[in-house]
Amino acid sequence: MSLRSKRVVFEKVFAEFRQDLEKMFNFSGLDRVSGMKMYQYPFKSRLLYKLVYDMCTAAPRPHTEKLFNAIADFLNDYTIQIRESILDHDDVVSAYAREWKHYSLAAGYSSMMCEYLNKLLVNGTKDNKSRGMVDKKTTVQGGNYRRQTVQALAYNIWKKQIVYTIKEKNSDRFMRQIFELIRRDRDGEDKVPDIVSDAIMSLVELTEHPLSLYIEEFEKPYLVHTRRYYERESATASQRLDEEVTRNSKYCHKSSHDTVIKECETQYVAAHQTRIQGEFGAMISNERYEDCTMAYTLLSRIPDGVNPLLEIFERYITNIGNGLIIRMGNSIAKDPREYVEFLLDHHSKYLTVCQKVFVNDAAFVAAVDKAFRTIVNDVTINPVAHSPEVMARYCDVLLKKTHKGGWSEQEVEDKLNRMIILFKYIEDKDVFQKFYSRMLAKRLIYGNSASEEAEANMISRLKVSYKYYE
Question: Residue 404: its pLDDT value, please?
């Protein structure tokens, strides 16, 4: 292939190139099985690459922007046709997934053929780069799209002409069908075909910002549909069980009441038990506390029904705590306050959840205790977070004259009182005592103690706690 610039008639050369683009996107004369080895004739790839090169290096003026805009026009026209074809089907989701599979393959292959064009658009010419003129956010001259590869252009046009247009102008048939298929799967009516997953995953592939399109178009509405589904399920279950209580009182001798109600609860709730338990993790992590209360209320009716909820609740609290401690890294060694005060806030939050969501059920309070015992004593997640030493240093910071928090005496007392909440979870309290005693001695020797009264109060708290937890 000659690398010398030459005069080209853009309309004529692009017409030839467009014919091959149409073949690629229509899979005309292509090998569908072999994926990217689409063309039956090996010279075809070289010919397409040469056509692109000739248009981008044409003398006296290259047709780079003109070529890019012409490809954009082709893709716009093509995706409009595809959209109409998809909407002609009753099963929009399957039609979408099939078309996306072909389109994404063709977009990738055509972008490979336009490699030289991609380099000019994304990286710029040597002359432009040296003058700082390449801006990937700028619109290509004469068109409506910013500088990007042909594949990225193809994906953005698909997103605009198919995903967004079906949503805005066709009653969102695509997503509505997806959620209806998922509902039928939940109700045991039909199994969701694998092609639905392909359609959903296209939303991940279509955006340059990781998951942004997927989150907006699928995840957020999916959470809304899920919440509403389980709200209806829970409300229906509660209503049916209440009806059985009334029916039982009307028809049965009082000696039968407990036995009959227990049987109704076992059969009705047990039928939904696995699904409710399976959804509980998402309820907690998304703070859908009304749903959590519904799940708890229903599963409390059957023996051991809430046990899986307790395990999920404990594991979630542990994972959140451990995750943040890992992210704190070595900063814990420099200042223990963030570590201790995060744990205290974390503890307070989930005790409140126990009180308001799970009617202060002792089993859920115990799950909070177990989670914090794990968080406080597991040094493997962050060796710097050695709780006995970190908490002793936290007390030292509060009890020194030179503490940097600017707290009043009462605020210091309140913080020390709260610290005792975490102290109860420390398994090796003797190690805490060793560090605390050493730091106390230094404060007294160097006259750096903020207050004798505060020191005495803290020692009293620790004595009481030692006796209580011995």
Answer: 56
Q: Which tokens hold the place of 407? A: 């707290």
Instruction: State residue 43's pLDDT score.
Output: 42
Long-range contacts of 266-270 (CB under 8 A, 24+ apart): 266/302, 266/303, 268/237, 268/240, 268/241, 269/237, 269/241, 269/298, 269/299, 269/301, 269/302, 269/305, 270/302
Return the CATH fold of 171-271: 5 helical Cullin repeat like (1.20.1310)
List of residues 6+ apart from 299 with CB closer than 8 A:
269, 273, 276, 277, 305, 306, 309
Closest by alpha carbon to 458, among 420, 405, 411? 420
Fold of domain 304-385: 5 helical Cullin repeat like (1.20.1310)
Q: Are 310 and 284 in contact (CB under 8 A)?
A: no
Cα 291 to Cα 180, 230, 364, distances in angstroms = 21, 7, 16
Low-confidence ranges of the chain (pLDDT < 50): 31-43, 125-134
Of 227, 263, 222, nearest in space to 245 by CA: 263
CA distance 11 to 460: 91
pTM of the model: 0.58
> What are phi and psi for residue 360, nearest 5 degrees?
60, 35
CATH level 2 (architecture), domain 387-469: Up-down Bundle (1.20)
Check whether domain 1-128+137-167 has CATH 1.20.1310.10, yes or no: yes
Query: CB atoms < 10 A from the CB of 64, how many?
Result: 20
- Say if 171-271 and 387-469 have the same CATH topology: yes
pLDDT tens for residues 224-247? 887 788 777 767 777 877 888 888
Q: What separation, in Å, do the N-terminal and C-terminal C-alpha atoms of the chain show?
A: 86
Closest CA to 400 of 344, 444, 334: 444
Give per-residue pLDDT as tens, 257-292: 788 777 777 777 777 788 888 889 989 998 989 889
Distance (Å, whole) CA 438 – CA 151: 65
Cα–Cα distance, 430 to 168 (Å, whole number): 66
Nearest to 174 by CA among 227, 144, 218: 218
Residue 189, amino acid: E
Distance CA 439, CA 399 (A): 10
